[in-house]
Amino acid sequence: MDDATAMTVDRGRFEDAVTPWEDQAWRRAALDWAVGELARHGLRESGAPREVRLRPWSVLVRLPAGGGPRDAVWFKASAPDAAFEAALGGALARWVPGHVVTPLAVDPGRGWTLLPDGGPLLRRVLDEGRAGPEAWEEVLGQYGRMQRALVPYAERLAGLGVPGARTRELPAIFDRLVADNPALDHEARRALLAGRPRLLEWCEELDALRVPDSLDHCDLHDGQILVPAPGRFAFFDWGDAAVGPPFAGLLVPLGAVRERYGPGRARRLRDAYLEPWTDLGPALPDLRRAAGLATRLAALGRAASWFRLFPGTPAADCHEASAFWVRELFAAPELPPEPEPEPEPDPRSESEPLPAPGPACGRLADR
Predict the structure, then answer these.
(1) Residue ranges of the alpha helices (H) in 151-185?
(2) Which residue, 192, 240, 200, is CA-closest to 220?
(3) What pTM was computed for the model?
(4) What is the DSSP letter of 121?
(5) How far is the C-alpha of 4 from the C-alpha of 9, rounded, in Å?
(6) β-sheet with 7-10: strand ranges across
(7) Is 166 exposed, middle or buried (0-12, 13-18, 19+ CB in 10 A)?
(8) I need a labelling partner for 239 at 20 to 30 A (CA). Which of 84, 263, 299, 363 fits?
């Protein structure tokens, strides 16, 4: 492979990120593998420049393979602690093929994946006005159906290397996040540890509701969802994923909807997500309670995911982001009983999105 092939390199705001892309031998091997897998599928590069996107957690290369804007394939190399994503992508294509992009090739040993273009991002579809907030109801319904279908595979998912965030594991995850983060001073640690009894109570209550574990994407915003056809959505970019309470997956999408449309749609979207789970046995109020508990506890999964980086990458901003999410665990008001239904959202407010939740160093804007 000619290492001088034209390409553009985007480092975003991570100029100091250390990635294997800087290693010429690694870069040559990765590109040779991608081009070889292209040829195996009867494809070849068009000659247009490759587009390289370097982040502390992944290397992404767009290889044009035709004349159209969608005629491209994507090579992805994940950081070591997220290298399970390659094997996971292949498994999801077998287990829930209607909900994901089927890879052209995976190399689980090296954490490499080659993906076809899966259609436009949901974010672009929303920005262009081709869909509105009602699209999120279908998105979350399809996501819930996918997670429901994956329940029987929970142990196999863990066997692929997907990290665990099961309810019984969350107290230990919390302890590690508090003890090991240099962005937390003594007073911050003391205040967080004072809340640990509440964490144990929430975990115990959620466990008692007996919602089975499944795969949680952990970062399901509108830049992680593709629209391959009207009314169909494909979920991708699984590097933050965990095996644990599935309802934790509501944290990020509900935040994205509040940011774009205001707070008036959250319960409707939550119930659209819960519909595939109504065969479990618990009454809908219990499922709603489980969703509230899991969404709060999801802050720990977000906090833990920030450290799946390439070795040597400075982690100061990741420590800050992780500390933000640990604090969020106790920042919200105490979980109340299920409130009265919300009024219908005022359409006049939809043009006035709320400020984005989360820390300024969050990944959302850089994915």
Answers:
(1) 154-159, 170-180
(2) 240
(3) 0.88
(4) B
(5) 13
(6) 7-10, 50-55, 58-64, 72-78, 112-116, 105-107
(7) middle
(8) 263
